Amino acid sequence: QVQLVESGGGLVQAGGSLRLSCAASGRTFSSYAVGWFRQAPGKERECVAVISRNGADTYYAYFVKGRFTISRDNAKNTVYLQMNSLKPEDTAIYYCAADPRGDGTVLAGKSDYWGQGTQVTVSS
Hints:
124 residues; mainly beta; four-stranded antiparallel sheet; 1 helix
């Protein structure tokens, strides 16, 4: 079982950058695939990026490809989301999610473990 805590959100101007962190408790974090999701007001939650247990495989939603990078440091029990060239439409609460069943489960939004979210606001 893991607990996830996101940090790094904030207010940034369009074109700027932020790096989100998802810190996990537990000694077996390397056994979990992890993803970042976001939800804007009045919209459905959507998957942004997913990373496999060992970091070898990644998935990006088309609307962030080339701008966002997901990475992980299993020694630090942390997954990162580097967000560059931010746009106002990236404004949302960003959540990390983890699951030992792998990338597919996380990608489907069916992770057992979720963080509380961090707000990202991009001004125009």
